[in-house]
Design a protein that fits this description.
Length: 623
């Protein structure tokens, strides 16, 4: 009578004369046990000294018990289970192999990005084009690019013009027009024109190399949920060890004959089934696929932590200038405080703004140039972040910036109040200008909303997120723009330090905040937010402070990021389920003596493969 279903199979292996077979099997099993199985001993046994155990411990112990028992039996002379020991190691290694192959596919993105880099470039020397390997390029080289070719490295267009497909960097499929002075990036695809560019960055410095580095770092980082999984495993493994010992004793004392055989095989089966191998794969594989998928869409996620946190976000704070709007304001109105000072107003403003990197400053200087104004020399220039600028021009103290800045300095703006109200009601930003403490007038600037802003805001709201607009701009202007974009909550006239405060306040209310910005003035708020997202066209400071860089520069990428995070977390949770499912379902079966150790090894291998395949499924899912 056989109580245990697998016993038949095991008996079946005791072919022929036991005097010969066991020794042959022993000889065959030994290299499998100690050579193929060596990695399990190496990583599984030393940890026992620290009173802990990992999945390798279980494999090593399980197979060793089967092997050792068989060795003893061979010498004594009854049935042996070398095949069990060898099959355990064999099947788990097979699972590993399948898993490694699937895992290789999870990081395809990086390989694809690296593969984009052309090998050669056509350098123009003495009017002649010569083909050189890309690694021989140096900064300053002039390189010619023809239609249909990949641009070999980063640089600046010297002559000619073209449309370039930068989708591999930005995720944006519309080609970008390139004219002299504009930057081009290595690995992007030249579509239509012929042009020459001067090399500015090579090798590890290029935008592509930096993207690859960022993605690699993110893929190697650990998500917080993984710590949870590890904690569960650290309780799970010893607990199952306890069950194994209990089942062993039970079968030894109460089992049918041969009791020791039943007891040992049950012990082996439990040790194998308890091994949460797939657990170690559940989080990293999904993170690798998630970050890789982001990179393909121009979304560079810095860390696994950011990708995880993003799925809990319930409030999205959007900077106005450069995030919701193009960030390229143009001068639309010049309103002098008294007749005749119009030219002087623009000239002085542009002279002082010349020292500022602010988009408003650039627009004012451009307008002055367009009108042929000759700028004055400026001394004691000072930028007041989020407020304006000041400096001496023509020996006079010029102060310009937000109406609030001038008002705070006690400069009366009564003569301008009507004009300021009108500008604001048109959604224009007023920059007020004072000379020696007297208001000269105001310059109105308009900054168009990005084409996708309105729709993206609506979609964020549909996803159940609260959208807040944050800006240093004038309150009325901000209100007007927010209304046109469908945003209810506006925080205006915020200084850079206030921006952090706004984020902090939302967090104090229990909100999980994503902050999206582009400027230096957004950097502290990007750091403070639970997830900081920087526009790729913004300042480097903003990008360094952010958890995520949006190369595509549109609010739509924020949606993609949040969706991607939700999908990745869902996959991780499914993975954790599958990783534990087999173990938990099969432990009682194993303890009851109904599980062949070989089938236990098969189930384990299967659960690892299931988990990796589930992560890979993320690749295909749309975001
Ligand atoms: P945002 O939050 O919209 O990115 P900032 O914080 O950079 O804007 O600036 C807030 C306000 O401060 C601007 O709307 C403008 O009124 C004033 N300001 C800041 N820098 C300058 C500058 N260089 N020239 C004129 N005004 C400025
Ligand atoms: Mg900004």
């Amino acid at each position: 009578m056989h109580v245990l279903p697998w016993f038949d199979y095991l008996n079946g292996l005791n072919l022929g004369s036991w005097q010969v077979w066991p020794w042959v099997l022993w000889a065959l099993a030994t290299p499998v046990q100690f050579w193929a199985g060596w990695p399990f001993y190496k990583s599984g046994i030393p940890v026992l000294r620290h009173g802990t155990a990992n999945m390798h411990t279980l494999v090593a112990l399980g197979s060793t018990v089967a092997y050792g028992y068989s060795a003893v039996i061979t010498i004594i002379g009854t049935g042996v289970y070398f095949d069990t020991a060898a099959l355990i190691i064999g099947l788990i290694l097979l699972g590993r192999f399948l898993e490694a192959r699937a895992r290789g596919r999870t990081s395809e993105t990086i390989r694809r990005l690296i593969g984009l880099q052309p090998n050669t470039a056509r350098v123009v020397r003495d009017g002649q084009e010569i083909e050189v390997p890309v690694q021989d390029l140096v900064a300053g080289d002039v390189v010619a690019v023809r239609p249909g070719e990949r641009i070999p490295t980063d640089g600046e267009v010297l002559e000619g013009s073209s449309a370039v497909d930068e989708s591999m960097l930005t995720g944006e499929s519309m080609p970008v027009d390139k004219t002299p002075g504009l930057p081009v990036y290595g690995a992007t695809l030249n579509r239509t024109g012929f042009f020459q560019f001067r090399v500015t960055r090579i090798g590890q410095e290029t935008a592509l190399a930096q993207i690859i580095r960022l993605v690699e770092e993110a893929q190697g980082s650990r998500a917080p949920i993984q710590r949870l999984a590890d904690r569960v495993a650290s309780v799970f493994v010893p607990a199952v060890g306890g069950v194994a010992v209990a089942a062993f004793l039970f079968w030894l004392l109460l089992g049918p004959d041969p009791a020791l055989t039943y007891a040992l095989l049950t012990l082996v089966a439990i040790l194998i089934i308890a091994c949460p191998c797939a657990l170690g794969l559940a989080t990293p594989t999904a993170i690798i696929v998630g970050t890789g998928k982001g990179a393909e869409r121009g979304i560079l996620i810095r860390s696994a932590q950011a990708l995880e946190t993003a799925h809990r976000v319930d409030t999205v704070v959007l900077d106005k200038t450069g995030t919701l709007t193009e960030g390229r304001p143009v001068v639309t109105d010049i309103v002098p405080a008294e007749a005749g000072v119009e030219r002087e107003l623009l000239r002085l403003a542009a002279s002082v703004e010349y020292g500022s990197e602010h988009p408003l400053a650039t627009a004012i200087v451009e307008e002055a140039n367009r009108r042929g104004a000759s700028l004055a020399d400026v001394s004691d220039f000072e930028a007041l972040p989020g407020q304006g600028v000041t400096g001496y021009a023509d020996g006079k103290l010029v102060l310009l910036g937000s109406p609030a800045l001038l008002a705070a300095q006690g400069i009366p703006l009564d003569s301008l109040s009507e004009a300021l109200a009108k500008l604001a009601s048109e959604g224009k930003t007023p920059v007020t200008v004072a000379r020696d403490g007297v208001a000269l007038g105001s310059i109105g600037l308009a900054d168009a909303a990005k084409p996708d802003s309105r729709e993206s805001v609506a979609r964020l709201q549909e996803m159940g997120l609260e959208v807040v607009m944050l800006t240093g701009d004038n309150r009325q202007t901000a209100r007007h723009i927010a209304d046109s974009l469908g945003i209810a909550r506006v925080e205006a006239e915020t200084l850079p330090s206030d921006k952090v405060e706004v984020v902090r306040r939302l967090q104090a209310d229990g909100k999980v905040v994503a902050m999206v910005g582009d400027g230096i003035n957004d950097a502290p708020a990007l750091v403070q937010a639970d997830v900081g997202l920087a526009m790729g066209a913004g300042t480097d400071v903003a990008m360094e402070s952010a958890d995520v860089t949006l190369m595509g520069n549109d609010v739509g990428s924020v949606i993609t990021t949040l969706r991607l995070s939700r999908q990745t977390m869902r996959a991780i949770k499914q993975n954790l389920f599958w990783a534990f499912f087999y173990n938990i379902m099969l432990i009682p079966v194993a303890a009851g003596g109904f599980l062949n150790p070989v089938l236990a090894a098969l189930a384990m291998a299967f659960s690892s493969v299931t988990v990796v395949s589930n992560s890979l499924r993320l690749r295909g899912a749309g975001v």
